[in-house]
Amino acid sequence: MERLDFQRGLEVRISRSDGFGCTALIQAVAKELLVLKPSDFDARQALLDQDPNEQVTLALGNGGTFMRGDTRILGPAGHDCVQTGRPRLQPVQRRAYFRVPVRVPVRIRREGRLAFGLTHDVSAGGSSAVLAAVHLEKDEVVQLSIDLTGGELEVDARVVDASDLHRFQFQGISSRDRDRLAAFVQRTDLGRLKHRLRTAG
Questions:
Q1: Considering only CA atoms, which of 3, 124, 8 is closest in space to residue 63?
Q2: Please, which of 43, 61, 68, 121 could form a disulfide with 38 given CB 3.0 to 4.6 Å?
Q3: How many CB atoms lie within 10 A of CB 43?
Q4: Which pTM was predicted?
């Protein structure tokens, strides 16, 4: 397995135990410190406002290789960056796409019949959903429609888990539709962050 390490210009994922998450670009790397530029001002402020003893997880990936480590936010760096400790990275197994919890209507078409439900989470590579009055079989391929902001997305999906919470992996999805899903996930994640900031204030 290729071993990754922090390098200037790489993108990292910052996450916390309370569900907060954002991306950041590495601006500088020292022996024990990192300077990171979060994706937007609200994310930076959320990191600076947290308890100094609260840990965050930094994760980075390349292809199928993923590494992560825990550290703390040490303070601001310049007008748009934060300074963190430099954690020791450990290899991890994780999904290739970031998932965000979100409840939106979903429609399943199988053998000419329709079933309806609500998503539990969505990523650019798949989704999970609670379905009403239907049970699918594992590895079954269905047509799945998700109600995204600004329009509906239809895609073939394979059932990877057929428990009470059905999990789907998208099949043969176009680059355009994957970009739409990635943008939807990013908007939803940012909206959750702004809501937490407003309620915390």
A1: 3
A2: 43
A3: 23
A4: 0.52
For Cα atoms 91, 97, 100, give the angle at the middle one, nearest 5 degrees: 115
Question: What pLDDT shows up at residue 84?
Answer: 96
Alpha carbon distance 119, 128 (integer Å):
6
Mean pLDDT of 79-99: 80
Helix residue ranges, H only, 25-117: 41-49
Cβ atoms within 10 Å, residue 170 = 21
Residue with tokens 């990877």: 160
Looking up tokens 């915390």, which residue turns up? 200
Segment 101-143, tens digit of pLDDT: 888 999 999 888 898 999 988 888 889 999 887 888 889 999 9
Cα separation, 144 vs 107, whole angstroms: 6
Is 100:123 a contact under the CB 8 Å cutoff? yes
Distance CA(137)–CA(22), nearest Å, equals 35
